């Protein structure tokens, strides 16, 4: 009995104390306003497909379902193979493609922030296998977690993948602040961060402010970065300079493989 209590307590303190993912993980950028593969259509928004884990997860859906499905087709991704959609936050450039994906596959489970309007939750519920509203950190499948809703004004969840190299954090727009997100993930999961990628939302920041964020992320020992989408060209350039070979290009059509 006591043993059980201790185990439950330990799993609460160290939620990722299990073995990290054993397969190679592929992260494909299927929607982005930043261009990478010229055969795909770049449009404002973000969507990233995570493959190689227990479930195939589409993180965010871009702004336009037609563009999303056409990009997926060009990358030979079948909507039928997606098990889970995670929506980071309410903005249309992250949620707009959801309905077209659900029309292609009604067996998907959608994880969305608890604060989403009931009307959106109900609409999704009618079109898919299940809708899970996330407020606190939650396990999505083996080795994959949501941070839960972070921030106050625009609430947002980020995706956390436990890999053999460390944690991978995928951010939609980072409205709660990219440094705050990384700090939260490090303190909650008690593991080093291997890669932070997605939108960092720094277009309105000047060089001094961007340098301060870079310094914070370096102090947090973030090994690799893939800033894109709403990060802003100047910030992306400064991140590229700071991380050098550990900077990941993340435009539309880019693929990141996490291999040991
Ligand atoms: Zn966005
Ligand atoms: Zn946004």
Structure description:
Strands 6-5-4-3-2-1-13 form a seven-stranded mixed beta sheet. A six-stranded mixed beta sheet has the order 7-8-9-10-11-12. Residues 3-8 have low confidence and may be disordered. The chain has a single domain, classed as Ribonuclease Z/Hydroxyacylglutathione hydrolase-like (Metallo-beta-lactamase, Chain A). The radius of gyration is 17 Å and the shape is globular. The termini are far apart. It is built from eight helices and 13 strands. It is α/β, with parallel strands linked by helices and 260 residues long. The protein has helices at residues 2-13, 65-74, 92-95, 98-104, 118-127, 178-189, 207-219, 233-243; strands at residues 25-32, 46-51, 57-59, 84-86, 109-113, 130-134, 138-141, 144-146, 159-163, 166-171, 193-199, 224-228, 255-258. The site of one zinc ion (ZN) has 8 residues, from helix 3.
Number of helices: 8
Shape: globular
Number of strands: 13
> What does the radius of gyration come to?
17 Å
Structural class: alpha/beta
How many structurally independent domains?
A: 1
Q: What is the makeup of the main sheet?
A: 7 strands, mixed
Strand portion, in percent?
Answer: 15-25%
Which class in CATH terms?
Alpha Beta
Distance between the termini: 39 Å
| Proportion in helices | 25-40%
CATH homologous superfamily classification = Ribonuclease Z/Hydroxyacylglutathione hydrolase-like
Instruction: Look at the structure and give the mean pLDDT.
Output: 93
What is the second-level CATH architecture?
Answer: 4-Layer Sandwich
Biggest sheet: strand arrangement: 6-5-4-3-2-1-13
pLDDT below 50 for ≥5 consecutive residues: which ranges? 3-8
Return the string of H and E elements.
HEEEHEHHEHEEEEEHEHEHE
Present as ligands are:
zinc ion
CATH fold naming: Metallo-beta-lactamase, Chain A
């Amino acid at each position: 009995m006591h043993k059980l209590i201790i185990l439950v307590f330990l799993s609460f303190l160290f939620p990722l104390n299990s073995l990290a993912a054993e397969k190679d993980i592929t992260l494909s950028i299927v929607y982005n306003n930043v261009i990478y593969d010229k055969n795909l259509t770049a449009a404002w928004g973000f969507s990233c497909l995570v493959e190689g884990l227990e479930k195939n997860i589409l993180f965010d859906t871009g702004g336009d379902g037609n563009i999303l499905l056409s990009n997926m087709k060009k990358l030979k991704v079948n909507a039928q193979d997606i098990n889970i959609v995670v929506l980071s936050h309410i903005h249309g450039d992250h949620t707009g493609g959801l309905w077209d994906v659900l029309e292609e596959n009604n067996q998907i489970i959608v994880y969305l922030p608890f604060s989403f309007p009931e009307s959106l939750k109900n609409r999704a519920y009618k079109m898919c296998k299940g809708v899970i509203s996330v407020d606190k950190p939650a396990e999505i499948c083996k080795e994959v977690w949501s941070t839960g809703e972070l921030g106050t004004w625009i609430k947002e969840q980020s995706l956390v993948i436990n890999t053999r190299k460390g944690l991978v954090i995928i951010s939609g727009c980072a409205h709660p602040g990219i440094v705050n997100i990384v700090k939260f993930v490090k303190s909650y999961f008690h593991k080093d961060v291997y890669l932070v990628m997605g939108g960092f939302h720094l277009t309105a920041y000047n060089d001094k402010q961007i340098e301060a964020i870079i310094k914070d992320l370096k102090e947090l020992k973030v090994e690799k970065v893939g800033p894109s989408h709403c990060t802003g060209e100047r910030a992306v350039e400064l991140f590229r300079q700071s991380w050098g070979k550990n900077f990941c290009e993340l435009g539309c059509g880019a693929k990141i493989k996490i291999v040991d």
